[in-house]
Amino acid sequence: MARAAADVPHLFVDLLDAHLDAAALMRVLTVLSDAMTARLLELAIARYGRPPVPFAWLAFGSGARSELTMASDQDNGLAYADTDDPAVDEFFRLVAEDRQRGACGAAALRSTPTACWRAYREWRMSLSAWKGGVRRLLEGRDLERLRPAKRRLRLSPRWPASCTSTWP
């Protein structure tokens, strides 16, 4: 994975030399990022076992808009089906941490130091918690988080593929 990620900057230059337009170039980088993320998640699930409940890996901001650049950070989250079992959140914490470690080791997925929050509880929660958080933002009850959380309002479920057809 690291070797493939190391080739992305060279691919970027080659595509620029081929006069690929900016919108197409950003889509290519987004597809590459999504593919690398999917593989990192597959490896994490192979390590920890079958997910205990359905889930979706979420892309926010430029990733959700398919506008990644070589300077983009990675803004992601994880939503999982509602459950009272605390072991579910622990499972997804481990999966998110594995993805994060892999992403930080892959130049094409590298995050800014302040964006290494994927495993943090605020960006990994149940679907009803996500809905509640967005509702509070829209109702103006959580204004101190509005600026960083505006990324939540531009999201796209990315993985697994089954979540994209069933996402509410």
Describe the structure.
Helix 1 runs antiparallel to helix 2 and helix 2 (22-48) crosses helix 4. The radius of gyration is 16 Å and the shape is globular. The protein starts with a helix and ends with a helix. Helices cover 53% and strands 11% of the residues. The protein has 7 helices and 4 strands. Strand 2, helix 4 and strand 3 (124-126) form a beta-alpha-beta unit. It has helices at 2-17, 22-48, 61-64, 86-105, 127-138, 146-149, 161-166; strands at residues 55-60, 76-80, 124-126, 155-159. The model is unreliable at 111-119 (pLDDT under 50). It is α+β, with helices and mostly antiparallel strands and 168 residues long. Strands 3-2-1-4 form a 4-stranded mixed beta sheet. The longest helix is centred in the N-terminal third of the chain and has 27 residues, at 22-48.
Short summary:
This protein has 168 residues and is of the alpha+beta class. The chain has seven helices and four strands.
Fill in the keyword field for this structure.
7 helices, globular, alpha+beta, 168 residues
Shape type: globular
Question: Strand share of the residues?
Answer: 5-15%
Helix vs. strand class: alpha+beta
Gyration radius from CA atoms, angstroms: 16 Å
User: Helix and strand string, N-terminal first?
Assistant: HHEHEHEHHEH
Terminal residue distance: 32 Å
In total, how many beta strands?
Answer: 4
Low-confidence stretches: 111-119
User: So how many helices?
Assistant: 7
Give average pLDDT, whole number: 78
**Estimated helix fraction:** 40-55%
Sheet with the most strands: spatial strand order: 3-2-1-4
Task: Report the sheet with the most strands, covering strand number, pairing sense and barrel closure.
Answer: 4 strands, mixed
